[in-house]
Amino acid sequence: YNSYEIVNDNNDLIEYGESLELNLVIENVGQYNTNAIIVEVETEDQYITMDNSESGIAFAIAGATAITESPISFSIHNNVPDGHYALFAVSLYDGEDNWNFTFNIEISAPVFEIVNPEIIDENNDGVWDPGEEATITVDLINSGSASFNYYPGATMTTDNSNINILSGENDNTFYAIPANTTYEGSFAVEALETTPLNTEVSF
Predict the structure, then answer these.
(1) How far apart are the first and last CA of the chain?
(2) CB-count burial class (<10 Å; 0-12, 13-18, 19+) for 85
(3) Rounded to two decimals, what is the model's pTM?
(4) Half-sphere exposure (CA, 13 Å, Cβ side) for 115?
């Protein structure tokens, strides 16, 4: 085994949710040429589904590299963790001899974090009073190594009956959030006039 070449990806980054095709580059380190080789690829990785696991190599010249004639293909699940390594097992058979090896790929995915909450009350005295509106800001972070391009958004909820969430469901929706990028989320809230003093609210 020498390496692999991705066939159908435009950024050479293996990412969550992708269906990929790749060719294996095989080096014949022996002293003799081979006959036609049957190539079979398998994986037990829980985040990978093999779509096409078979290919072939017409022949491999001693001391040279050869590439699979057609790509193997697989799909990556959306819930794969960022930085996950998927292991593949490869079997080569030329009708007489059998060779086995493994290779792995690193997969990129987004990682979402919410940090640095801040409450700005309506009259800016630093106290969120009963009957007062406030704005809660947070940092919405994608700390992963892959962008998320499916209109990411954030909403705020609470189980506290003394609090109304004034922001709409789509008020904090973005076109995309690239890898290692931070956006500010802003949420309007209101405390009812009947809210007891010193009420703690979880969002």
Answers:
(1) 52
(2) exposed
(3) 0.86
(4) 8
